[in-house]
Amino acid sequence: MNTALILFAHGARDPEWADPMRRVQAAVRQLQPATRVELAFLEFIAPTLGDCIAGLIGDGVEKIVVMPMFIARGGHLKRDVPDLLAALRLAHPGVEFVLGDAIGAHESVVQAMAAAALAEAGLQLAE
Q: Which of 37, 40, 107, 119 could form a disulfide with 49 if both were Cys (CB 3.0 to 4.6 A apart)?
């Protein structure tokens, strides 16, 4: 099955805001060069999730995994994105859509953020 991964971020008016997301995209592409990895945004920055999905479907992708690059699962991930994906499932029954959990819900990310916060403060991890 032809699978693509969309890293889905909120977006901001400052275009530099997306730089860390682009670094994540590049890192994922390096780790999994055979998989198509795209970046989409909820607002302010293109492409939108809908535009990105349309492009992937147009290229014949059969499975699309949307990985929310959000710290927590708020209103957008509880309502807006599931509603959008439900509509896309109806419009494209031959495509499998998978919505991942917010990246911040993953324990490895929580631990990485804790370590980064301590490092920024000049503190070491307790043993």
A: 40
